[in-house]
Design goal:
Methane Monooxygenase Hydroxylase, Chain G, domain 1; five-stranded antiparallel beta sheet; 5 strands; CarD-like/TRCF_RID; CarD-like_C; CarD-like/TRCF_RID_sf
């Protein structure tokens, strides 16, 4: 048996790709199907959900520690970029957005947030666009909040402020002919 590549301690914040930021609340040993398993018990407060992940599967499911400061800066810089809206069908774009969100990669999530953000002077989002935008923003805000030790609404406001400033700059570029 190889040495464990990933090791999390009780109290650590971790990112589980499909669910976002959770906290390791305990390490358990359980016998399942006659085998002794060591499990991380993760708590996701927002969803009021508890998840048990075998320690030897943590890496293969993509569980990771919070992003580095460098990755966080890169994600926040991504928010300031010009939105990229592809002209493909919405259902295809929606699948791509969901895949980026579920990847757990902070920069990919920031791309989704940037691309789906609508400033007050822009056309209204469809219901499904708004749902994906809110999900991605929440996922980004939870990791930002855990890293900066603030609450989620504060982190979310910081993200929206960056987006509003970027939108103001990008909309100045669009001078009517």
């Amino acid at each position: 048996m190889a040495a464990k590549a990933l090791s999390f301690d009780v109290g650590d914040y971790v990112v589980y790709p499909k669910h976002g930021v959770g906290r390791v609340i305990e390490l358990q040993r359980q016998e399942i199907a006659g085998m002794q398993l060591e499990l991380y018990v993760l708590r996701f407060e927002k969803e009021r959900m508890t998840l048990r992940v075998p320690t030897n599967k943590a890496e293969s499911v993509g569980m990771r520690k919070l992003s580095s400061d460098k990755t966080l800066r890169e994600a926040l810089d991504t928010l300031t970029g010009k939105p990229r809206v592809k002209r493909t069908m919405w259902s295809r774009r929606a699948q791509e957005y969901e895949a980026k969100i579920n990847s757990g990669d902070l920069v990919s999530i920031a791309e989704v947030v940037r691309d789906l953000f609508r400033a007050d002077d822009q056309p209204e989002q469809s219901y499904s666009e708004r749902q994906i935008f809110e999900g991605a923003t929440s996922r980004l805000a939870r990791e930002l909040a855990a890293m900066e030790q603030v609450d989620e609404p504060t982190a979310q406001e910081k993200i929206l402020e960056i987006l509003r400033k970027a939108a103001a700059i990008h909309n100045k570029d669009k001078v009517p002919a």
